[in-house]
Specification:
The chain is of the alpha/beta class. It has helices spanning 3-11, 31-36, 76-83, 90-108, 124-130, 134-146, 169-176, 204-215, and strands at residues 67-69, 72-73, 116-119, 155-157, 180-182, 192-200, 220-228. It folds into two domains: 1-36, no CATH class; 38-228, Rossmann fold (3-Layer(aba) Sandwich), CATH 3.40.50.2020. Helices cover 34% and strands 14% of the residues. Strands 1, 2, 3, 6 and 7 form a five-stranded parallel sheet that branches. Strand 6 (192-200), helix 8 (204-215) and strand 7 form a beta-alpha-beta unit. 43% of the residues are buried. One zinc ion (ZN) is lined by residues 16, 18-19, 21, 29-30, 32-33.
Length: 238
């Protein structure tokens, strides 16, 4: 989004969260961005790892979560929208993604009875620097939409991992080890947990967080993210 559009969208709340164009009240996306967004077709992805069936990694790795789902791929306009979280109109972006994520939970996990919702934490330093945790904002909205209690201190982020984007798939899993700790004061005995994050890349973060939730006694952990990454979906933003 250009600086001009950032300013326009700050002045006019009825602007597209992706491109900043003025749109009708109560809407989030302009027609163009709505058409350009790459939604996930649930019939074509693996319910466990959340990847397109052709890319499924469940034979290679036993994940700690029982399922992974997301409404959109991490490409183009949706990638831009998630990025625009940083540009001030974060409440609308959070609401938009939370609504879509809640719908995804209802359709992908229709047979699951969730007890609680929680989210991937940030390190204290990062939180202080940014002022908010994107995943927490999403989780708070989803908690209201799905009427699920939120637990905000189940997982503790103990160290900032090395930047992940230069690492390959296996390195990412190694790099995530020891980054999160289970908060022993929280008891999740027998609970089915919905774990929220903004973007899933390899699933290493979700896997490590799910592991910590299981350590706290959780029965099962299911993940929901706003965006998910797949190999054959590499279209870049405008
Ligand atoms: Zn737009
Ligand atoms: Zn799979």
């Amino acid at each position: 989004m250009s600086i001009f559009k950032v300013i326009v969208s700050a002045l006019f709340p009825n602007s597209c969260i992706c491109c900043g164009d003025i749109i009708n009240e109560g809407e989030y996306l302009c027609e163009y961005c709505s058409e350009m967004s790459e939604t996930v077709d649930y019939t074509k992805v693996c319910g466990r790892c959340g990847l397109p069936k052709k890319e499924c990694l469940c034979f290679k790795r036993v994940f700690h979560f029982s399922g992974c789902a997301a409404p959109f791929y991490n490409t183009g306009v949706m990638k831009e929208a998630m990025y625009s979280f940083k540009f001030g109109h974060k409440e609308r972006v959070a609401k938009f993604f939370a609504e879509r994520m809640a719908l995804t939970v209802k359709s992908c996990y229709s047979n699951v009875n969730f007890d609680v919702i929680t989210f991937v934490p940030m390190t204290f330093r990062k939180h202080l620097k940014r002022g908010y945790n994107q995943s927490e904002l999403l989780a708070r909205h989803i908690s209201k939409l799905l009427k699920l209690p939120i637990i905000d201190n189940a997982i503790i982020s103990v160290r900032g991992a090395k930047t992940q984007h230069k690492l390959n798939y296996d390195e990412r899993f190694k790099n995530t080890k020891g980054k999160f700790l289970a908060n022993k004061k929280v008891n999740l005995n027998g609970k089915t947990v919905l774990l929220v994050d903004d973007i899933k890349t390899t699933g290493a973060t979700m896997d490590e967080c799910a592991k910590q939730l299981l350590l706290l006694g959780a029965d099962e952990v299911y993940c929901i993210t706003g965006l998910t990454t797949a190999k054959n979906k590499k279209k870049e933003g405008k």
